[in-house]
Amino acid sequence: MSEELAQGPKESPPAQRAGPREVWKKGGRLLSVLLAVNVLLLACTLISGGAFNKVAVYDTDVFALLTAMMLLATLWILFYLLRTVRCPCAVPYRDAHAGPIWLRGGLVLFGICTLIMDVFKTGYYSSFFECQSAIKILHPLIQAVFVIIQTYFLWVSAKDCVHVHLDLTWCGLMFTLITNLAIWMAAVVDESVHQSHSYSSSHSNASHARLASDQHADNPVGGDSCLCSTAVCQIFQQGYFYLYPFNIEYSLFASTMLYVMWKNVGRFLASTPGHSHTPTPVSLFRETFFAGPVLGLLLFVVGLAVFIIYEVQVSGDRSRTRQALVIYYSFNIVCLGLTTLVSLSGSIIYRFDRRAMDHHKNPTRTLDVALLMGAALGQYAISYYSIVAVVAGTPQDLLAGLNLTHALLTIAQHTFQNMFIIESLHRGPPGAEPHSTHPKEPCQDLTFTNLDALHTLPACPPTPGLVSSSPSDQREAVAIISTPRGQWRRRCLKDISLFLLLCNVILWVMPAFGARPHFSNTVEVDFYGYSLWAVIVNICLPFGIFYRMHAVSSLLEVYVLS
């Protein structure tokens, strides 16, 4: 006892010292999540309430909320850039997997299109400024500033693992994420109301939706002066509606990057070389058989032609609408069938791939997998509703058969494509074969037709070309032995990735820019009724559209890792 008193109090072990810090770390995350949930519920209430006539919530209230949220998020981003990251040791680690160049490049592209949309919106509302609320013109201007600052912030800080101002950073990132989700929800609701108005106008049933072509012209003063009657006004109106898909994708891209940053706050990264890899430079058609890119481009061009024909003919008489639906479903059946077979073949090729599985912690990959699985549920739901309506409904004709085949292939395509992408993301980069860690046994890569001979053959004698004390020479020897089959598999996987990428782009373009066979084909509308079917489609379809663009981003990463 006396010796212990003389030595003084002992230092706590590292695990005990880190205990309170870990508890507060979880508390800070919990605080940010609770803040996000409350703000998100408030935004959902106002946005959904403003979409119906009987609810006394005006679109000016929604614009005011979104403007206030964007201003607060912008202020926090400026504080982060000007104060937080300039603190000593603020960013000791950077996550190499977070914010890949193609994701940031897509964010910039969609951000530019969003800025153009804001210009069209400003011009549209300025066309009848006299009877409009000032918030309607202020909202697109604030959104433009928010998009510019946020895009710069995500470009330079997407990989940061911040270790200062933890609670404020967690709350700021989560609030900015919820701001993007609120913008996404507002755009989806606005576009859904517009599509509902188009359907109700073509069927002379105005009770299905309010007049969305004048959807934001809530005129407390009244009168026809707020109608968009000039040619310039109509150009602005149609222009920003066609640019809505880019704004939707920008918000979702930003949300995914912000979530990864939120997960990386306070994170410690191991500096061992086995936990990361150097990004491979992207060359689009290098080391491919060209079959995938050529066939993918062909389907993309044909898909654009089919989409144009569909948009022109679907609003005509009944016979032209039926013809447009037959062409639309036929193309989609061919495209979905090919992508299903190609995805399945890619999974089969992986059975012969010797690259090691990457089991290291990777928040970016975890989020990608969760988004792929979660977003696919939207298209699954629509497909199963269509299957029930076609099988149980009448009559059974060609259009019903095409609809049923399309729904079944949609389920199969999402399933097999997700399997291929998820397995690809968990594969190590090129050169991560398990045998590369044992370069002293170069003969283990040889293939024997008789497996029992493997135990009876004598050890391979050393040869001057394969024995070297240099690790680089050993890796080169392994590469020489495994090159022929490895290059063949790599080229096949690159072709598959590019083909699936181009097919997912055209499958994104069609619904994102207004193709709605769910309403033009009256099987589901007659079976479920317009009100229920509109709710199902308007809730599930945005997830299906997001799935396609997120699959494109993931397939580009698969191409690089192949």
Describe this structure in words.
The chain is mostly helical and 562 residues long. The chain folds into 2 domains: 24-203 and 229-267, no CATH class; 285-429 and 475-561, no CATH class. Helices cover 69% and strands 1% of the residues. The protein contains 16 helices and 2 strands. The protein has helices at residues 2-7, 14-49, 59-84, 101-126, 134-157, 166-202, 231-242, 244-264, 291-313, 318-350, 363-392, 398-425, 471-512, 517-520, 522-528, 530-561; strands at 93-94, 160-161. The protein has a two-stranded antiparallel ribbon.
List keywords for this structure.
single chain; 2 strands; two-stranded antiparallel ribbon; 562 residues; Otopetrin; hydrogen ion transport; Otopetrin 2; transmembrane helix; 1% strand; disordered N terminus; membrane; mainly alpha; 69% helix
How far the N terminus sits from the C terminus, by CA atoms, comes to 64 Å
Helix segment tally = 16
Biggest sheet architecture: 2 strands, antiparallel
Specify Rg, calculated over alpha carbons: 28 Å
The helix fraction, in percent, is: 55-70%
| Overall strand count | 2
- Largest beta sheet: strand ordering: 1-2
Give the integer mean of the pLDDT values.
76
Classification by helices and strands: mainly alpha
Number of domains: 2
Give the overall shape: globular
What percentage of amino acids are in beta strands? under 5%
In sequence order, what are the helices and strands, one letter per element? HHHEHHEHHHHHHHHHHH
Give the low-confidence spans: 1-23, 204-224, 272-285, 434-482
